[in-house]
Design goal:
The protein is mostly helical. The protein contains 7 helices and no strands.
């Protein structure tokens, strides 16, 4: 019976290890993921010579798929922020929606962006805008980030 639930126990232990490495030891998330995947593979009894190959394939496949999207989105977001575009957009959103309703402004902006872009690109593109609007409107980034993520996930 124990052998039947061991894979589930191993995965739960892996999640606990991952969260502990990130939250308590303040380890970089990428490094924590690699360490956790190796430990979980060992717990599951994977042969030592196959562990790194499996980790490499898993991370390579995932990163290969989203690295370009995140990279280009980050570049576009940085250009928006450095060029003053984020500040201008933030001022316009606050002026149109008012200080009390900036979360609705963020929701509408993310909804419009989400129609044309992938979720990941929209997220990376709008993150600088969330921080700029939050700073200008003196509100929590969470108050603006949640509507943004919600609108992006609904539209794409």
């Amino acid at each position: 019976m124990f052998a039947e639930i061991w894979p589930l126990i191993s995965v739960v232990l892996g999640i606990v290890i991952l969260l502990s490495l990130i939250i308590f030891l303040k380890l970089n998330t990428f490094i924590a993921l690699i360490i956790t995947s190796i430990i979980t593979a060992l717990l599951l009894g994977m042969p030592l010579d196959k562990i790194m190959e499996t980790v490499e394939k898993g991370m390579g496949g995932t990163l290969g798929h989203i690295a370009l999207i995140f990279g280009l989105g980050a570049i576009l977001g940085k250009l928006l922020s450095d060029g003053g575009g984020a500040t201008r957009i933030a001022d316009t959103l606050i002026a149109k929606f008012g200080q009390k309703h900036v979360q609705w402004a963020m929701l509408v902006a993310a909804f419009i962006v989400g129609i044309a872009l992938f979720f990941e690109v929209g997220l990376v593109l709008l993150i600088p805008l969330v921080f700029t609007v939050a700073k200008r409107a003196n509100v929590s980034t969470l108050k603006l980030g949640l509507p943004m993520v919600t609108a992006l996930s609904v539209t794409h």
